[in-house]
Write a structure and sequence with these properties.
Shape: globular
Subcellular location: Cell envelope
Distance between the termini: 82 Å
GO molecular function: copper ion binding; nitrous-oxide reductase activity
Protein name: Sec-dependent nitrous-oxide reductase
Pfam family, one: nos_propeller
Radius of gyration: 27 Å
Strand order of the largest sheet: 6-7-8-9-17-18-13-12-11-10
EC number: 1.7.2.4
Largest sheet: 10 strands, mixed
Length: 658
Amino acid sequence: MKRISQTTLLLAGLGAIAIASGCKAGKTGQAATDEDAAKKVYVAPGKHDELYMFASGGFSGQIAAYGIPSGRLLKVIPVFSQNPENGYGYSEETKPMLNTSHGFVPWDDTHHPELSKTNGEDDGRWLFINGNNTPRIARLNLATFKTEEILELPNVAGNHASPFCTENTEYIVGNTRFSVPLDGDKDVSIGDFKKKFKGAATFIKVDKNTGRMNIAFQLIVPGFNYDLAHAGKGPSHDWIFFTCYNTEQANTLLEVNASQRDKDFIMAVNWKKAEELVAQGKGHKAPAKYAHNLYNERTHSATSTMENDVTMLDVKDYPGLIYYIPCPKSPHGVDVEPNGEYFVASGKLAAVIPVFSFKKMLGAIDQKQFEGDFDGIPVLKYNTVLEGEVQKPGLGPLHTEFDGKGYAYTSMFVSSEIVKWKVDTREIIDRIPTYYSIGHLSVPGGDSRHPYGKYVIALNKITKDRYLPTGPELTQSAQLIDITGNKMKLLLDFPTIGEPHYAQTIPAEKIEKNSVKFFKLEENDNPYAAKSEKEARVVRKGNRVDVYMTAIRSHLAPDNIEGINQGDDVYVHVTNLEQDWDVPHGFAIKGSNNSELLIMPGETATLKWAPDRTGIFPFYCTDFCSALHQEMSGYFRVSPKGSNVPLTFHLGENLAAR
């Protein structure tokens, strides 16, 4: 216990020193209030930002889209969590998106957005994001800003090393943070950790035309804690690199027990070789239950399919598939520079940043320059792969991205700063404080072959003294820093939703040109769509009542419905008849224990309502759509169970005259 206390006190002390020094720098620099900085981030009314930034929402389970350089929040995109703002996960069409092998799971912990790539460049087609808690990977369509697919990962616990893509989005990968027994071996003693607990590196094939994902294979790897990955580029195209920690294979008090060794590992995986082995019929099918959820843009609805097996390759059986490279202790990520020759790791508890050479790695493999093996996996000698080290970069190095001009930028969590250094010489060029406890950072295109450069964005965990207080919990933040000159310059900071673990940033023009403005009514294949008011109707089958409703400025049709009985299951299918950009309609019912719907132009969405009492229940449009928005409403009459009140529906009829 004494040893734990010393470790905890040391880290706490370093953090306090870092925050204290950060406060001092902030008082003297005043960079964020500089007139020149204000000009650089000012986006005039009616003008657009030059970049989109997609930031993970952390414990919100969502993604947030911001405009850069203004820092304006543009949209919160629902992914893994129910969202009453638009009915995601509440409507009958979207509920299947949140189905898992554990049942309906309406929440997750998002960490790492990843843009799809073509020839190593961000192409603006899709955005992938991981669910860390219930292991899942989602794919978003950036033409609609909707989540189109969610794939659960079997044999994985803590899907943190995810969802990084190869150079042409051939594969998206996910790996386990918490090694666990594989799905076929459930009831195992925790004391058998070293014998029975394994990692499963999942390779998900992505269809180049539709983006549809399918698990191609999983690699059974030793039971470490696997962390962030990046794929190779150019000469290293066929490889992907993961960091891993807890090579001690501890299962209790990891703060101390997983920090014993001076070095952990980078795991280098030849994914091309794995692909070839699977094509040859190698590996074995293993039982694995996992959900695959797909949203159909034509029907505006999702389906959920339960899969039952997965192809697995045990890396011990296939020499040359993976190699371990020693890396300073407790690394949190590995990053590949734009040319694909160097890859950089960040040991959280190290005083150096190692830069490795892909060419040297291949040479070391060819010459069998091993220092031994781990569970049959060759471990390369550190110095045979090392190109050099960045000396004394700061405290707590985490993540590195690149500007395409030969410079790298590394976040320092403990000393709360970003360090700029030259890739070929490892010389430190500049450093700038962040406020405070930076985690990830994002250079636009900084993990691609051709970075956009211009900015680096710090994603910070702590904002003491930066904003108005909001009780015990303060917002997290992002800080925009100019990197066009030799010296970095803070331009702006702005609050973010949830906990912004990571963000990816892309020129707006790559997304704007493909943006969908409305869904064509003639292409609406939802079986419950009413494509004109003439098709509006109410149908009863036993205790089920289907209301086929239309919405258009400024009324709902029908707007008076009688003959609903207490205990009925009422499905209200609302079709938005608008064919104009940015004219959604909402729908809500008094007392419904569901949420509202927000229906896009040309779309159909369904709200299930089970009235539990008799009475008159108003319904209305929740999205202000016109001058007569308040008048866009109607009534349900709910009668006692077994009532003989006939089922009737009306629009524009004076019921008092009947």
